[in-house]
Write a structure and sequence with these properties.
The complex is a heterotetramer, with 2 copies of chain A and 2 copies of chain B. By secondary structure, chain A is of the alpha+beta class. Chain A is built from 2 helices and 5 strands, in the order βαβαβββ. Classes of the chains: A alpha+beta, B alpha+beta.
Chain lengths: 81, 160, 160, 81
């Protein structure tokens, strides 16, 4: 099934894309999506332990399963304020 | 009152909106505390030319809503406004304005401080600094809105 | 930036002036905290129609200068603005606006809180409340700018 | 010698005057001035223990001597903010 990935800030710059469309197995979790992203864009792999994620614009856990059409966002450490 | 915008920020405008929301609930407030974060000219000794802020707008607004709801749990009558600016900002521009309106001043300061601490912990917003000789993304906290330890830390700072 | 006025108050206007004064000293500030006190619709259960504030203007301004000087002893880089409004005020009007600009947010909140505590302790300003069925002067602290115990209490509240 | 007295807020209302001109002995202190004010306007006497004072728009102690032409202000407890 197909999901959309959104990348922000330095992740976006390192991957060279703010959005990706990727195909994942039907039982995939957000962690699986992230692995596919790091496989395709190894430059973002160092964020492995410092990533936050969201699904359809709600914060989520990496263990959460994804569904077809979901928008998965990966967020580097934040610096707002 | 909980928003991400590319427009310059105004404390008066946001305070007016927050106060109107209090009146609309049939309440009054006697104290309004605000916080504005301004772009500084230097960062760790390097001269900053300008900044760019980027946000995941929809998630940032939801995060601000969570922060407002958290604040209401502790301070039921508090009204809160949070607006974060994104895009290119110059030295001295406000990147964020927070308004806390309450009956009395102690709570106004507490709510305002709580909100800025939580924004820094969990809002999906990123600061990109541009220097004379390069640029750098600032990376602070790993955002985890469900982290109760972080939330307790923010409460402790606010109610010190 | 340290004044008594009959005109409506603006946080943005005073913050702009305070920030400009910081820049004029060749410094920058990253955090601006403000406090505004608003006229409340009730006082001890009685409905307030309006208020009048009276001040000893010249002495009030000197008192604000003392408060600024006290703040600088503790927070050398802080910039402070205090404007108190006098005359007739309606429900919701701001009677006072305080601005504290510093490099970092902890100090901005502290300076702002310190200033409002000290204003309430020593500024020669009086609130006259008008109800449906009468009026009352509010009388709080006996103003004594040299009272170090009161000053220590304000510092303790600000830096709690 | 002659000094000016300024009264504020409830003091002003009770005395029915915002300014008084009074004659005091040359060795008078602010406390002496206050006593003359309370003699002339007994309604303000209850403020005896809750009064602040200023001389020429600077806070002062009640024990401070006054000079000809000084402006002495008496301040009831304050309520700004």
């Amino acid at each position: 099934m197909r999901v959309t990935v959104r990348l922000f800030a330095r992740l976006r710059e390192l991957a060279g894309a703010e959005a990706l469309t990727i195909d994942v197995p039907t039982d995939a979790t957000i962690a699986d999506v992230w692995r596919q992203v790091t496989d395709a864009h190894p430059s973002v792999a160092p964020f492995d332990r410092a990533i936050s994620c969201a699904i359809n614009a709600s914060f989520a856990r990496m263990s959460q399963p994804v569904s077809a059409g979901d928008e998965i966002a990966f967020l580097p450490p934040v610096s707002g304020g | 009152m909980l928003a991400v915008t590319r427009a310059p920020l105004s404390v008066d405008a946001l305070a007016g909106a927050v106060e109107a929301s209090v009146r609309a609930r049939g309440k009054g407030c006697g104290a309004v505390a605000s916080f504005a974060g301004l772009v500084r000219a230097t960062h760790q000794g390097r001269a900053v030319r300008y900044l760019e802020y980027e946000a995941f707008d929809a998630l940032a607004v939801k995060t601000f809503e969570q922060i407002r709801d958290e604040a209401r749990q502790r301070w039921p009558d508090a009204a809160l406004g949070i607006v974060h600016r994104v895009g290119r900002l110059s030295i001295g521009d406000a990147s964020i304005v927070i308004i806390a309106a309450t009956a009395h001043r102690t709570e106004a300061f507490q709510v305002c401080r709580y909100a800025i601490e939580r924004v820094k912990q969990i809002a999906p917003v990123w600061k990109h600094e541009f220097f004379e000789d390069g640029d750098a993304w600032v990376e602070g906290a790993v955002a985890d809105p469900a982290d109760e330890t972080a939330r307790a830390r923010a409460l402790a700072v606010a109610c010190a």
